[in-house]
Structure formats: structure tokens, C-alpha cells
Amino acid sequence: MSQTYTTIIGLEVHVQLATDSKLFCGCSTQFGAEPNTQTCPVCIGMPGSLPVMNREAYDLSLKTAVAVNCEIPEFTKWDRKQYFYPDLPKGYQISQYDLPMSANGYLEIHDEKDRFEPKRVRITRAHLEEDAGKSVHDEQAGTADSEIDLNRTGTPLLEIVSEPDMRSSAEARAYLSELKLLLTYLGVSDCNMQEGSLRVDANVNLHLDTDEGKVATPIVEIKNMNSFRAVERALDYEAQRQFRVWQETGKKIGDSPKQTRGWDDAAGITRGQRSKEESSDYRYFPDPDLVPIIVTSEQIQEVKDALGELPADFRNRLIREFGLSSYDTDVLVNQGREVVDYFLEVAEHCDDAKAACNWVTQEVLRALKERESIISEFAISATNLAGLIQAIVEGKLPKTRAKDAFELMMVDGIDVASTVDRLGIEQVDESALESLCQELLDANPKIVADVQSGKPQAVGALIGQAKKRNPNVDPGRVREICLKLAQQE
Amino acid sequence: MSVVEHSASELLELLARGDASSVEITQAYLDRIATDDKQIGAFLHVDPDAALKQAADVDRRRKAGKQIGKLAGLPVAVKDVLCDSDTLTTCASQMLKSFRAPYNSTVVAKLKAADAVLIGRTNMDEFAMGGSTENSSFQLTRNPWDRDRVPGGSSGGAAACVAAGMAPLSVGTDTGGSIRQPAGLCGVVGMKPTYGRVSRFGLVAFASSLDQVGPLSRSTKDAALLLETLAGHDPQDATSLDTEVPRYTASIDQPLEGLRLGIVREHFAEGLDKEVEAAVREAIKVYESLGATVKEISLPHSKYAVATYYVIAPSEASSNLARYDGVHYGHRTDRAALLEELAAERKQLEAAGDQAALDALDSSLVRMYRKSRSEGFGSEVKRRIMLGAYALSAGYYDAYYLKALKVRRLIRQDFDAAFEEVDLIAGPVTAQPAFKIGEMADDPLAMYLVDLYTVSANLAGLPGISIPCGFSKSGLPIGLQLQARPLAEETLFRGARMFEQATDWHQRRPGADSRAKKH
Amino acid sequence: MAITRADVEKVSLLARLQLSETEIETLTVELGKIVAYVDQLSEVDTDGVAPMAHAVEVSNVFASDEVKTSLPREQALANAPSHNPRGYLVPPVLGG
Question: Which of A81, A479, A112, A93 has the alpha carbon at shortest distance from A327?
Fold first, then answer.
């Protein structure tokens, strides 16, 4: 039985919001503290303790929801999602159920390599909730017990749920990259996957064309994917696995309940996770300890107005204002807001935006990669790089010495003028250059003859010699002058 | 006159004049507790040394002319449901029998800041669930007027200790009548403020949208005094109201001019005890004699209040009590016994070849939860958790919980309409005087119906007060309930004080007969 | 809606209670009676009535995003039935 299938993917992304304190108490959200040193009666869920909502967490989530084009309802409230787990000390998670703070948004995605057509992925909803703690197996205790750390309990999360609009792992990855980029541009999260600031669950199934018409396979939720690469691999694996299972069993959606599978990155497979049948009865109800939030259309407009330029806006502007290619634009924008700002500053202080783009996308990014550094720590300030480019434009710095200058500026953090000095670069004036060329032609009559007989490439041999005599000469100029003088002879 | 016969306001005057020291007053109450509480059982925990130390400290500071708080040197009893970092907070439950909160409830913090002497922790129905204090997992509390009878609940200890002269002031909590009902049954004043008037921070939650802290005392003036100390906005409680607290004691002696008193037609329906009805009708006549106009009003949805309450309160309770799982605090079942039990069950199922049951067998974690909770909670608490979990579970939410929230609004709207026409609503607190211990033990539903007249105020968030208005032939106190619109505590106090000044029911004390009666 | 023994067993797992045989029987009857009483709510016309989740309806209550001192770890763990110096101990969360 040979068939083609379409993979249907929806993603649920949990983003940790960049607040200093937790969602409902004043404990720090700092990652990496000693276990159970960032807790208080509220996040331990001690009797009588009460939650009070962190304003910043709401503001950040509102900003994000507006940026992903969500509708913001006037009224939103808090609900309790109830289940028992040792890392959930109250026995319920404060979340949002039927009236989330935002819904019906979208995110536009495209592929640098054009593997898929640009498309709009719809966002079902984005809602706020508190994080749970962490359970670790305690080996030192010498028992089979688990140890519970509640430091993370109560950390603010924004859950962003997409519609099942993605059709390949590449689209899923593009969605995640674009979302992450947007979140970092907004400054609402550091999106660090290793520290759990960004977590992804995927819902996936297949649509097949069969003799009996279109059918769908049962939906599987994949968890435990710790990198975007892992998401891609897990989705590819899962699509193939579901197709195989379909061929073997013919099971369709509805034949079996939604299954949860965990991604095993080392083994490269998904594994079924044990689920209790009662686990889905979360008995949601409005949290009586927290009051609703009411937001006006004026407030939403203010948030919109204050968003600033987002990745899509930057892409348009870089193409429009500087005439950059869409490829270069992607490279710049996808590096993050700081790189774009750096580029803009370089471009502003020199007369060659395309050169600025080339320098940033090639030399600067290469240097950062080699040093495993970030743009804010880069030794060449944007104005210094602009100075370098401008010196080339104005002929004060021969192109051939530009990379030497760049390396030196990077090591010493000095400006272009001092660099030129330090490298002993002197501008070779036109008459000196002409006499140097004349000397070389005089010493090489064969080359002159070759040029005159229609072989201009013969002057190439003279360029090396000229550079030996004076390292500051511009090879292009040497070529031009030699050709001109040889013709005149 | 013994110190313990004085009202709180009088005691404050004695202290201010230097006619009595806090140590003397505190000692007098401690003596009364020592002689009488063995029979009454109002207190779960009294630490005489700590109380006397607080008293001595206040005396010293008063003598030195230092700044002292509003209740300086006055003993106050606190229901064992309000966290106090200096002592245990048990909620009368095995679950929390050794729980020590590392924080003070806002109410306790305010009492400490007012330099009150925290004289002891009062008994209650476990987690405030009940109307007789019989659900305490530690001890019974007996009604000081008749020790074969219950003091009411859940703040039974709080009411009984005031009635028996073991504390001049006491702090209770009211979720469906838990201050007003025991106050009524014990012949003292008990007041439930507007929801949000007093902070709930550090009050161990039963039903968060209904719970409210309030005062119990011998007079309305004392209740006003205590509420002034307890009330106020608390940034730690999102449901706490950010409005100024009036000085209730300053205005309480001014009678209400042109008072319009509402009488609820539905309150005088079947089931109301004849003696209670007579006392309440008599009280209304007193108001008329004081110049009030009486108007009959209707609260058409009030007959659904108990049903509404017994959906909402257990639902919230089932959730609020989920945190008692034996992991972070509270009772945990014995590990070895748990593992043994599971191993035995597994063996049995294996022998029977029952694979389905084996698959469904609890993990050791799930069994730990289930055993810890079943051992830690008493039967009424379990019943309400079951009821609440059922009402919120898939398939029933709309029919029960959501429906109840809508009826709740209709109940509130009835009150809003009524308060367009009247200033206060007067009626009975309970349908009967105090019942016998054990009388309702086997009929949970009958027990729930005891809350008939009190739950509406919690559902609607209104303030309500219970004041003594008479006695049955057998000598049991009867209470009059007054209710006012939200945040109209001042009106409520003034209206209640009018009646108190015109009558002497509040001055009666449980006689020597009942005190001497042996058990 | 009548409450069955199966309902009681199912809810007891949801609520993490372990009920004895007698408790299951008693609760089936008692909860049945209470639910039958509560069922009178169905006769109330609530069309167009907004649910009322709070006794006093306020909105937009926030705290500022300021880090406050956490509990010292010994205090946080002091009430735990089982703990080591770092954290709370429980039977294994997976399997077991």
C-alpha cells in the first residue's frame, strides 16, 4: 500500500516571562539557585497564604499577545486547574481556562531557503499561568524517594497555543524561530531552552487520502523536546511512526484516545507515556482568591503604540531603506534586535549601507561566532566600524588592508585613525603612485609590449611588485595606472 | 464585680485609669479558663505563661509612658484557623495537628500590633466545616447555657468562651454563618463584616469567596471596637477592599433616625420554632417603639440559598483542601504500612489474575496521598471534599457549579432591590435554639439546613450581626440577625446598639446552675 | 442525577481519598440526598444571568514586580513530614 500523507502539526509553547519576581508572590525567579531557597508561604501553598498578581507579568503577556496579533478581550480571569503532583504544592495550578487574556492571533513565517511558501500560522490563544516545581530522583538518600524543589513554582509562564496549521517539521521550526525572535525583540523572555524558559509540546497527526476518502490518524502529543532541532527530529520521526502504525493497524482518529509520547533525543524515538484515565478531569473553576482583569481598548492601543519595530517591520525597512537583499535582511534580523541596531548605527555613520551589511553579516558575525561572544560585548563599536567603512569609501584605507585593520581594531578596541597609524598605512599620493608604476614599467619592457599587443592581464605581474615596494598601494589603482601608462608609451 | 464580668470597653477604661493591670485582667480570665474550660472545652490551646508575659510587657510599656496599641492589655481569643507564628494552627484537624506557620495572619498581626493579649486558640469544627463544633477532631465544646447542647459552629469555641466569661473578645470566621449562628446559640454578639472588609491573609481557607473574619463579644460596642482593629485593606489579599475603615465606636451610640427595617416574608415560613419566632417578632416591636418603620420585603431566591451554598462552598473547599497531601506539611501516612498494604493488594490481585484491577492499582505516591488525606481528615471534611469534587467534575460543572454561581447573583440582586427600600433586614439567626450534642450527627442534610438564615449574607457578601434577643422557656439564648448593604457596618452597629440599649438580653450570663452542672 | 457507587469511587480517586467499604456505602446515600436537595437549583430560570464568582466584585488588583525575601530553607522545610537538607521527599513520582 503506497500512499502520500500530510503531516498536521500544532504547537504549544510555554514561555517564561522575564519578571524579577514570581507570578503571585515576591520570590525571585533567578535560575540556578540552591533548591528550595526561593520559596515563601504563597508559592509553597501554605495554609492561609494568598496569591496577588504580578503586574509586570500581565504587562509582558499583554505586549506579547498584541505582538502576535491576538484579540484582547475586555475581561479575563483566573482559574484553578486541579491535579495532584508533588511539585504542585497547592494541588492546583493557577491558569486561565475559558476566558484567556488573548485569542485569535497569528504569526507569519517564511523560509530563507524557500522550502515552503510563506504562510500565516494562526494562534488559538495565549494565556498566563504559573509554573510547577521540579522533582528529582534522590540517589544520595539511598532510598527510592524523589526530591522536590519548589524554586520554580509560581514562575510566570505564557502559554501560546497554535492552530494545527503547520505541515512539516521545517514549518514548525520556522514558527518556533520566528516566535522566539519576536519574544526576544519584545524583551518579554530570554527564551533560554536549556534553562526551561522556552518549552515546546507538539500535537501531530497525519491526513491521508485513501480509497474511502480522507482519513486522519489519532493525534499524538509529543513532550520532552529540548531544542528546536529536537522538535524537527521528533516530528519527522513521529510522522513516519504514525504512517507505519496506520499501515499496520488502520487506526483512525477517534479509535483511540489522544496519546502522549516523550521524545528520547539519544535514541531518536518517541515513547508512549503512561497516562491515568482520570488525569484529564482537571475540575477547572474560577479562582476565588484572585480578581478578574479588565482592560480597555485605550490601554490595548497604548501597548500597540509602544511595541516598536518587530522583526517583520525591520525586514521591510531594511529592504526599503537600504536596498538590502531579502537574504541579507533575514540574516541580520534573525540575529536579533541588538545586531539590527548595530547594523543601523553602522549604516547611519557611513555612506555605504550595503558595505555595512556585508561587514556585519560576514566579518562581525564570523568574529562573534569564533569568540562565542555577543554583539553587546563586541570590541568594535558601531561607529568605529562605520569609520572603517567610511575610510575605505574615501580611499583613506586601501581595501587590501581593511581586514588587517579590522583584526587590530577588534583586539585593541581602537578607532580607525589610530589603526591606520599603527599599521603604518599612509595614503599613497597620486604622483608617487604614478612614478612607482613608471619605474616598474621601465624595468619590464616585455610587459609593456604585451599590453600594447592586446594582453592587458599582463600588468598583473606588476601589482605584486608594487605591493612589495609599498604595502599601502591600492592594487586596483596600480592596475589602472600601469595600463594607462603602458598605452601611452 | 469580678473582672471577667466587664465588657471590653470597660476593661480598657480600667486599664487606662490604672485601676487594673493587664496582668490582673489576664490572670482573672486564665483563672476562669482553668476552672471552667474543662467542662466547656472552648479552648484548644492556652499558654498562660506566654499570655501573662504579653500582659506584663504591655503593663511595663504603659507605665513607662510608651506608645501602646488600641487593645493594649486586653485578652483576645483567636479561632484556631488564623495563623500565628508563635503557636500551632491546627484548624481542629489531625491533618494540621503539628503545623506551625512561619507567618502571622494579617488579623493576628493586627492584634499583636494593637497590643492585645492573645489568650488562647479556640475550638472549631474541623476546617470550619460544621455548625456545632462537633466536627473538631480534638474535643467537644459545650454550650455554656446547657452543657448537653452544642455551642453552634463552626466558631463554637469562640462564642462559648465569650459566653462563659473566659475572654472578653474573640475572633471567629464566618463562611455560612459560623460566627452569627454560634453567637446566637450562645447568647453573645457575633458579627460577619462585608466580604473583603477584613483581610483573609493567613486565614486557613474553607471557601475563599465566602470566608470572612469577624468579632464575637458581649456587646455591640465591643464588637465595633474589635472590628476597628481587624478591618482594613491588605495588599496581601487581592479580595480585600481598599476603602477607609470608619470609627465604628465613635458613632455607635447614635440611634438611626427614621430607620427602615425590612422583615423577610420567607423567613417566617414553616420550620421556624415558635419561641424563636416570638422572640424575633418581639424584637421587631422594640424597633417600632424606637421609631423604626417596619416593611415586609421578599427575597424570592432566598429559598435556594442553602442549595447554592452547598454547591459553591464544597467546590471551593475541595480545591482549597487539595494542598493537604502529606508532602510539604501536614499529616503523612506511615510509609512501611503503606507499602505493605499495596504489596498485599498486588499479591491478591495477581493470585486472582485480575489484570484490569492490577493496572488500576494505585502507585505508592497516589496511595500515599489517599491514605494521608483519609487519615488526616474527619468525615464531614471528606464528605464536603467529595461533594465539591463531584460538583466540579466533568459533566456536572454546568448543572451544579455554574448554575449555583448564577443563582448566587440572583440572590444578591434580591438584596440589592430590598436595600432600595430598607436600611436593615431583621430576622432570626437560626430556626431553633441550640440542639443537643449528637442530635444531628446522622443527618448531614438536616445539619446543613441549620444555615438557612445565615448563608445568604455570605453568598451576597453582606455584613450581618447576631445579637441576643430573648431566651427559650428552657433558658436557651435566641439571637436576632440584622443584615445591611455591603460596607454598611456602621449602620449595622448603630441599629444593633439601639436594640441593645433598649433591652437587657445581652447582660444575662449563663447561671451558676449551668456552670455547676456536672458531666 | 442519582449518585452511584461508581461515582463515589471515581470521585474518591479524583479527590485522593481512600474510602473504606462502609464509607463508600454511606457516602453514596448521603451524597445522593444532598445532591437531590441541590437539584432544586435546576428549577431557577438563570437565562442571561452572569455567574457571580466573588462575593464582592472588584478587578485589576496587582502587586509590583519586586523581589522580596524568601523563607530560609530550614523554615520552608520545617513542617514537611519527610525531607533532607535540600528538599521535600516523596515516594517516587514515576512508576512505583
Answer: A112
Nearest to B212 by CA among B167, B257, B266, B155: B155
**Chains adjacent to A (≥3 CB pairs closer than 8 angstroms):** B, C
Q: What residues contact B235, with CB distance under 8 A and at least 6 apart?
A: A52, C63
| Cross-chain Cβ contact A48/B401 below 8 Å | no
> Taking residues B43-57, what's their average pLDDT?
98
Q: How far A288 CA lies from chain B's nearest CA (Å)?
A: 5
Q: Is the pLDDT of residue A278 over 90?
A: no
Chain C positions in Cβ-Cβ contact with residue B412 (cut-off 8 Å):
52
Domain C5-43 matching CATH 1.10.20: the answer reads yes
The span from the CA of A403 to the CA of B255, in Å, is 93
Whole-number pLDDT of residue B1: 65
Residue B79 known to be catalytic: yes
ipTM over 0.85 threshold: yes
Report, as an integer, the average pLDDT of B396-402.
95
Sequence spans of domains, chain A: 5-298, 309-422, 430-488
Tens of pLDDT, residue by residue over A188-243, are: 999 999 999 999 999 999 999 888 889 999 999 999 999 999 999 999 999 999 99
Q: What is the pLDDT of residues A5-35, one digit of tens each?
A: 999 999 999 999 999 999 999 999 999 999 9
Chain B residues touching C55 at Cβ < 8 A: 195-196, 209-210, 458-461
Query: Which position has the higher pLDDT, A62 or A462?
Result: A62
Residue numbers in B near A148 (CB within 8 A): 327-328
Concerning whether B98 is annotated as a catalytic residue, the answer is no
A57 at C interface, C-beta within 8 A? yes
When pLDDT is averaged across residues A97-126 and rounded to a whole number, the result is 95
* Average pLDDT over chain A, rounded to an integer: 91
**Which residues of chain A have a CB within 8 Å of the CB of C73?**
34-37
From the candidates B93, B178, B240, B456, which is the catalytic residue? B178
**Amino acid, res. B104:** N
Domain residue ranges in chain B: 3-265+420-516, 325-376
Topology of domain B3-265+420-516, CATH? Amidase signature (AS) enzymes (3.90.1300)
Given CB atoms, is A356 within the 8 Å cutoff of chain C? no
B514 catalytic residue (yes or no): no
Cβ of B389 and C15 within 8 Å?
Answer: yes
Q: Exposure pattern of A94-110 as b/e (b: 16+ CB <10 Å)?
A: bbbbebbbbbebbbebb
In this predicted model, which residue has the larger pLDDT, C13 or B269? C13
Per DSSP, which regions of B374-486 are E strands? 424-428, 464-471, 477-483
Three-state SS letters, B475-514? CCEEEEEEECCCCCHHHHHHHHHHHHHHCCHHHCCCCHHH
